[in-house]
Amino acid sequence: MFTVEQIEKAHSKVKSGADFPDYIKEIRELGVKSFETWVKDSHTEYFGENDYSTKSQPKYTDLKIGDEVDKERFTHQLKSHQRRETDYMKFCKDCAETGIEKWIVDLDQFTCIYYDKAGNEILTEEIPH
């Protein structure tokens, strides 16, 4: 079993999107199979073996998620984040402004899928491993 504290310790090493693959590797070794992060407040639910799950607390005051998805702008901002040009809070604000409600990371498939408020897949990325 893993704890939110263990995951948050691993996440504290992430300074930009470029650090994300190492973070994924570390939490996968803890037993995390997938997780779902909500942009509005960055609370995350983590899932492991045998229906185990745990949830983090909100990280900030609620952001308003845009009603219209701007996939092109979101993709551009995501790439900036992955190049270490923005921090996590800026990335979350960018997600909210471009209509991204959440992302789901599958650590078996090594994918990160971004969704809008209607549950539509907006972008699927492969996570380097």
TrEMBL record:
Top-level taxonomic group: Bacteria
Matching Pfam families: DUF1398
Protein name: Uncharacterized conserved protein YbcV, DUF1398 family
